[in-house]
Design brief:
Blueprint (H helix, E strand, L loop, with lengths): L1 H12 E12 L2 E12 L3 E5 L6 H9 L6 E6 L2 E2 L10 E4 L11 H11 L4 H14 L15 H13 L5 E5 L7 H18 L3 E5 L2 H7 L2 E6 L2 E6 L1 H6 L4 H6 L4 E11 L2 E6 L2 E6 L8 E6 L5 E2 L8 E12 L4 E6 L5 E6 L14 E6 L5 E3 L10 H6 L2
Parallel strand pairs: 3-8, 3-9, 6-7, 7-8
Antiparallel strand pairs: 1-2, 1-4, 4-5, 9-10, 11-12, 11-14, 12-13, 14-20, 15-19, 16-17, 16-19, 17-18
Bound molecules: adenosine-5'-triphosphate.
C-alpha cells in the first residue's frame, strides 16, 4: 500500500514529461527524439543556439504545435489531442504582452472569466493575488501607466491565478534593456521561490540561465546535449559544444599520452599538460579546457603544475575584476580573469611574454564534440 502511495506521489511530482518527441517542418528536423522530465517546483530552463528547436518544443508542450511522434504528459496525463486551454498550463510570451486596453484588474481576471468563474469568486481571487504580488492600489490603471516591474508581476499574476500545473515562458525578457532585465530576473526568481511554482523557460541567454534556473536543458540541432543544474553544466559539461556554449573557456586540441592514478597526461601543440580524470575517457583525441577564472597569469602562474607562455594582447579593467587575453604560440587565445591586477595595463601594447598557469584539478577533458552525430571535434574546439 505504502509503495503504491509513494509511486503515485513520485508520478505526480513529474509535472511535465516528454517522451521521444519528434517534429519536422518539411525537411527541417526541429525536434528529434526529445525526452525529459520536469519536477514540481523546478525552474526548468531550455537553452540553445538560434534554430535549435526551443520554441518548437515549448509550442508542442503547450498544444500550439502537434508533434509528428512521441508523447507529452502534464500532471501525469497524456495530453495528446488536448487543446491548449485544457492543458492546465499558462503562457507568458515575449515582452510579457498584457492587454493594453484592459486595466490591471481585468488583465488579471481574464483567465478566470474565460473559464466562466462567478464574479464574486473572481473578485476574491484577484484581490488575493494582487496582495501576493504587491499590486494593491493599482487595479484601475492601464498597463502603459505602469513600471516594467509591475507589468511583469501582472503578467505573472494573470498566469498564476488560474492555478496551472506549469507556466511556460518564451523569452519573456527578450527585448528589455540590460539593467532592467537584471532587475526583472531577480524578481522572477524571488516569485518562483516564494510561490513554489513550476516554470519552463526558453531563452538563448546563458547568463540568464545561470542566474535563474534550477535545471538547464541545453539543445542543439533539435536534440538534447545535456540536462543538469547550472553548476553541473558549467563545471562538468558533457560535450565540447556545451562547454563552449556556457561561458568563456580556454580550449586546446590534444591527445591522451598516458593515464594512471586518476590523472591523465595530454599532449597539445603548445606543451604537455595534466588533468585529473573525473570521468574516464576512451578517445585518444580530446579537448583540454580551463575556465578563465581558473587560469592564472603573471607571477602567480608559477605555483601551478601546468604552465605555458603567451603574449599578452589585451587587458581590460572591468571594474570589479581584470580580464587578460594572451595569445599562445599556436595562435589560440587564452583568457584569465582575476580581481587583482596581475600585469600592468601598458604591457598589452608591447605584447609582453607572460606565463599562464592552472591546476590539473581545474582542467576539463572532453572527448565528445556534441551529441549531434558527425561533428568533428576540432571544428567545435576552434568554433566561436
Ligand atoms: P530562436 O532562438 O531563433 O527562436 P529556436 O531554438 O526557438 O530558435 P525554433 O523556432 O524552434 O528554434 O525552430 C527550429 C527549426 O524549425 C528552425 O530551423 C526553424 O526555421 C524551423 N521552423 C520552426 N517553425 C517552423 C514553421 N512553422 N515552418 C517551417 N519551419 C519552421
Amino acid at each position: 500500500m505504502q509503495t503504491k502511495i509513494l509511486r503515485r506521489y513520485l508520478m505526480v511530482e513529474k509535472v511535465v514529461s516528454a517522451r521521444n518527441l519528434t517534429k519536422t517542418f518539411g525537411k527541417v528536423v526541429a525536434l528529434k527524439n526529445v525526452s525529459f522530465d520536469v519536477d514540481r517546483g523546478e525552474f526548468f530552463l531550455i537553452i540553445g543556439p538560434s534554430g535549435c528547436g526551443k520554441t518548437t518544443l515549448l509550442r508542442c508542450l503547450a498544444g500550439l504545435e502537434t508533434p509528428d511522434s512521441g508523447h507529452i504528459f502534464i500532471g501525469g496525463k497524456n495530453v495528446e489531442g488536448v487543446p491548449t486551454r485544457e492543458r492546465d498550463i499558462s503562457l507568458v510570451f515575449q515582452n510579457l504582452a498584457l492587454f493594453p486596453h484592459k486595466n490591471v484588474y481585468d488583465n488579471i481576471a481574464f483567465g478566470l472569466r474565460m473559464r466562466k468563474t462567478p464574479e464574486d469568486v473572481v473578485r476574491n481571487k484577484v484581490e488575493n493575488i494582487m496582495k501576493i504580488f504587491g499590486l494593491e492600489g493599482i487595479e484601475n490603471r492601464l498597463p502603459e501607466k505602469l513600471s516594467a516591474g509591475q507589468r511583469q508581476r501582472i503578467a505573472l499574476a494573470r498566469s498564476t491565478i488560474i492555478g496551472p500545473s506549469v507556466i511556460f515562458f518564451d523569452e519573456p525578457l527578450g527585448n528589455i534593456d540590460y539593467r532592467l532585465r537584471k532587475k526583472l530576473e531577480l524578481e522572477l526568481k524571488l516569485i518562483h521561490k516564494k510561490l513554489g511554482l513550476t516554470f519552463i523557460y526558453v531563452t538563448h541567454d546563458q547568463e540568464q540561465a545561470m542566474t535563474l534556473a534550477t535545471k538547464i536543458m541545453v539543445m542543439n540541432y533539435g536534440v538534447i546535449e545535456q540536462i543538469g543544474s547550472p553548476t553541473e553544466i558549467y563545471s562538468n559539461p558533457s560535450t565540447v559544444f556545451v562547454a563552449k556554449f556556457f561561458g568563456d573557456i580556454n580550449m586546446l586540441s590534444g591527445e591522451i599520452a598516458s593515464k594512471g592514478n586518476g590523472m591523465a597526461t595530454i599532449k597539445t601543440d603548445v606543451g604537455t599538460f595534466e588533468a585529473r580524470l573525473v570521468n574516464d575517457v576512451v578517445e585518444k583525441k580530446i579537448a583540454y579546457a580551463i575556465r578563465p577564472e581558473k587560469t592564472y597569469i603573471g607571477a602567480s602562474a608559477n605555483e601551478f603544475e601546468n604552465k605555458t607562455e603567451g603574449k599578452i594582447i589585451s587587458i581590460f579593467n572591468k571594474g570589479s575584476y581584470f580580464e587578460y587575453v594572451a595569445q599562445l604560440p599556436n595562435g589560440v587565445e587564452f583568457k584569465s580573469v582575476s580581481q587583482k591586477q596581475a600585469i600592468p595595463i601598458d604591457q598589452a601594447q608591447m605584447r609582453v611574454e607572460v606565463l599562464l598557469g592552472w591546476s590539473s584539478s581545474d582542467a576539463l577533458l572532453l572527448e565528445k564534440p556534441s551529441v549531434v552525430p558527425g561533428i568533428n571535434i576540432d571544428k567545435v574546439i576552434l568554433g566561436a
